[in-house]
């Protein structure tokens, strides 16, 4: 089987790959796949940026479809992540200026 089981965590999507060939990839191969699926770049010591290519991977599109109905309640109301100017700026700073201008 080549199925993918995914768990959505606080730090992203964690995937368990069933395909034996894919599981045997070296670090460089696994990293290339992770980069292909990434929409947020950066880390603890650098600013994080959201990079959305012209066409999203179908798995990412599906994740957006599934979570869109929960966004208002979970993110805006429960986590209150836009409640202060500082929090709003933190979110806006994740997007390249070119993206926000468009």
Q: What does it look like?
A:
This protein has helices at 20-23, 27-37, 58-68, 71-78, 85-92, 97-101; strands spanning 4-9, 12-17, 40-43, 46-50. With 102 residues, it is an alpha+beta fold. The protein has a two-stranded antiparallel sheet with strand order 1-2. It has a two-stranded antiparallel sheet with strand order 3-4. A hairpin with a 2-residue loop joins strand 1 (4-9) and strand 2 (12-17).
Could you tell me the strand content as a percent range? 15-25%
Globally, the shape reads globular
Give the spatial strand order of the biggest sheet: 1-2
What separation lies between the terminal Cα atoms? 42 Å
Largest sheet: 2 strands, antiparallel
Query: Could you estimate the helical fraction of the residues in percent?
Result: 40-55%
- Supply the number of helical segments: 6
Evaluate the radius of gyration.
16 Å
Record field, number of beta strands: 4
User: What average pLDDT do the residues reach?
Assistant: 75
Uncertain regions spanning at least 5 consecutive residues: none
Structural class: alpha+beta
Order of helices and strands: EEHHEEHHHH
Please state the oligomeric state of the protein chains shown.
single chain
């Amino acid at each position: 089987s080549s199925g993918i089981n995914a768990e959505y965590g606080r730090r992203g999507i964690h995937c368990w790959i069933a395909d034996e060939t894919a599981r045997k990839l070296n670090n460089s191969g696994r990293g290339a796949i992770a980069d292909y699926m990434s929409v947020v770049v950066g880390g603890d010591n650098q600013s994080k940026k959201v990079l959305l290519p012209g066409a999203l991977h179908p798995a990412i599109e599906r994740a957006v479809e599934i979570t869109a109905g929960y966004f208002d309640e979970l993110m805006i109301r429960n986590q209150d992540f836009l409640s202060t100017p500082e929090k709003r700026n933190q979110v806006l700073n994740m997007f390249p200026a070119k993206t926000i201008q468009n």
